[in-house]
């Protein structure tokens, strides 16, 4: 047993759960898990359908950011200042995650699994992709459709997409919510075209933040996170799902958010998502992020998120 009797301290879903760690791959998993028929109750106050997400849409108004996306990933024509951003890991990490580590494929078909209200799809549409999405939350789907985005309701497997349909499939903080992540990744492999790309991001159970905050680490999120992967666990999963070519790495992109939320959880019983963080906690979070980026530079998998990019 890793942690016993944990409960939802942010969105106040009912019940409690225990977290255990796999001795082989290090992944952390909820035991027992809510059954699929009941898991929806854990999301009744979970903000998956906010239209305000659109405020995070990237634009090319900043010459340096446009230049970076052009030189690094092939999106559009950018200025020479983009090369300067390679020296700033925090900005670079945010831009890379903003396109889910996908090189440009003009006119390519992209499926976003767990698309929420469609902010990411909207962004990628502006960069030349033909986008589609799927989400189990009907309210989120309606918001996405109001943006003119093709979006379906339900699970990925329920959609029965034809084989070799998409050039890219993305899952941003989705796989930790799934009862059968192996089946989901196998389905992603099936619907990807030859050499199509899978890209997913999920919390990292091996992160510095988890080691420091323990049961107060924001990435645990009982009862919605059914499993929390390590880089090793995600590598094993990718291989079992049929991906022969893949890369697994970690990022400190979300370290400031994770550290500030975790510090508040350690200080008090419950923490609403909009509770403000004191300045000194924000400062400590920024320092922790720089520490994680330094650790990543020497090859440590210390980042708060683990990323899998794979080719079918």
Descriptive notes:
The protein is α/β, with parallel strands linked by helices. The protein has 9 helices and 11 strands. The protein has helices at residues 63-73, 89-98, 119-126, 138-146, 181-191, 208-213, 231-240, 255-267, 279-297; strands at residues 3-7, 16-21, 28-31, 109-113, 130-135, 150-153, 166-172, 192-203, 227-228, 245-251, 305-311. A 7-stranded mixed beta sheet has the order 6-5-4-7-8-11-10, with helices on both faces. The chain has a 4-stranded antiparallel beta sheet with strand order 1-2-3-9, with no helix packed on it. Strand 2 (16-21) and strand 3 (28-31) form a beta hairpin. The chain starts with a strand and ends with a strand.
Topology record:
Blueprint: E1 3-7, E2 16-21, E3 28-31, H1 63-73, H2 89-98, E4 109-113, H3 119-126, E5 130-135, H4 138-146, E6 150-153, E7 166-172, H5 181-191, E8 192-203, H6 208-213, E9 227-228, H7 231-240, E10 245-251, H8 255-267, H9 279-297, E11 305-311
Parallel strand pairs: 4-5, 4-7, 5-6, 7-8
Antiparallel strand pairs: 1-2, 2-3, 3-9, 8-11, 10-11
Helix pairs in contact: 8-9
